Amino acid sequence: MTRHVAILGGGCAGLSLAAKASAMPDTRIMVIEHPDYKTAKDHNWGCWAVDGMQAAHQMARKTWYRWAIYSEKKAVVQTAQHYPYMAISSAAWKGHCRITAKRQGVEFRSVRLSHIDQDQTGFRLVADQPLPDCHHIADSRTPDIPQGIMLQHFRGVEILAENPVFDPDCAVLMDFRCDQSRGIHFIYVLPYSPHQALIESTMFTPHPQEDAFYDHAITRYCEDIIKTGKRQVLRREAGIIPMGFLRPRDDRLDAIGGNGGAIRPSSGYAFTFIQRQIDEAMLHYQQKGELRFSSPHQRIDLWMDKVFLTVLRHRPDVAPMLFSHVASALNGDEMALFMSGLATSRIRLKIIMAMPKWPFLRAMFSGLGQRV
Ligand SMILES: Cc1cc2nc3c(=O)[nH]c(=O)nc-3n(C[C@H](O)[C@H](O)[C@H](O)COP(=O)(O)OP(=O)(O)OC[C@H]3O[C@@H](n4cnc5c(N)ncnc54)[C@H](O)[C@@H]3O)c2cc1C
Predict the structure, then answer these.
(1) Residue of 18, 136, 189, 234 with fewest CB within 10 Å of its CB?
(2) Within 13 A of 308's CA, how many CA atoms are on the CB side?
């Protein structure tokens, strides 16, 4: 019997799943998009090229085997032997997935869904156009973000600088030499050449700032810290990523992507975890013949993230020191594995040993019941 699967939302997770249609024989897949949600502007997905990320690695715009974390007090540079950091164009990845999915017979529909009815045989999608009933729904629509949770919010520009100030072999993951007066704030730099880089002003706080704050931070960084000289802006990007534990949008449906808990709570990284969530679901399909999605994170990582987020929320002043300590304790490949959810117990122990004990003990015993 042919099983009908609807994927709600054609973003990173929806399209990455649709591109795997041929791994789900006897299945007809339809991606349901919403006409009012315009295709998001092109932006970068930064992540590490760990095992399982080969397809993205092949499409990467650039990879870096070195990366740095700067605070006022020190610079930590990590070098990887096996797992470089990489930048993937969201437009290129989504375009590739869309074409691959269409070649495999996936249908795309743009409709306004009003509600979903469920009975023993499956789901009825009620929309402004008729849609076929389906047996299974993978829901990647953006989840609701609870008020007051920690957010990663950023604005950035890709620039051409007058002076050759960028080291194209070393990405800057965090540079805390910027205004810390409103909470955790750092500059992120992806250098594409000595003259060209993406520079983002990024904050971890519950409330986004006005645009001028990020723009001013980037200007100060370019002029006072790295001394770019004149700059030409090539493109801009901005975003808000929830850091925390979200409820799926509809409990009756299988949730995927950010809606399915794929965003790593302590970092906001999601691309790797979305690919892992889908790969694991495909493996399950091959073995059991049914589609099932689960969290791509290990429980111990979620527990460590909760403690870490509690510390960040209550002691934002220690953030530059914490991130520098983690980076100092690990080599590049260990950092890549940890950030990608593939840490061994030895790597986790190194991180725990590197942390100042007092704020973490307080977070473990007093803050865990609170919203992060
Ligand atoms: C600007 C930006 C930069 C990021 N950078 C990184 C990074 O460097 N590294 C990293 O790992 N992660 C990054 N992330 C986080 C994460 O990877 C992305 O948010 C990723 O796109 C999440 O994929 P998703 O499919 O869950 O959600 P989305 O890609 O947002 O897709 C959700 C889809 O649902 C659609 N939708 C919403 N409502 C409806 C509806 N009612 N009906 C139908 N469709 C609907 C939307 O239009 C969208 O297409 C970034 C996020 C942003 C926004």
Answers:
(1) 234
(2) 24
For CATH 3.30.9.10, the residue range(s) in the chain are 151-242
Cβ burial of 104 (10 Å; 0-12, 13-18, 19+) is middle
pLDDT 10s digits, 155-187: 999 999 999 999 999 999 999 999 999 999 999
Q: Are 117 and 126 in contact (CB under 8 A)?
A: yes
pLDDT at 349: 93
Give the β-pairing of 170-175 and 66-70.
Answer: parallel
Task: Return the residue whose CA atom lies nearest to atom 7 of ligand 1.
Answer: 45
- Return the DSSP state at 70: E
Domain spanning 3-40+90-145+245-288, CATH class: alpha beta
Nearest CA to ligand 1 atom 53: 239
CA torsion angle 358 364 366 368 (round to 10)? 140
Pick from 15, 31, 45 the residue to mutate for probing ligand 1's pocket: most ligand atoms within 8 Å of its CB.
45
* Segment 315-329, tens digit of pLDDT: 899 899 999 999 999
How many H helices and E strands in the chain? Answer: 10, 17
Return the exposure string of 275-299: e unless at least 16 CB atoms fall within 10 Å of the residue's CB, then b. Answer: bbbbbbbeeebeeeeebebebbbee
CATH number for the segment(s) 151-242: 3.30.9.10
What angle separates helix 332-339 from helix 319-329, to the nearest 10 degrees?
120
Look at the chain and count its residues. 372
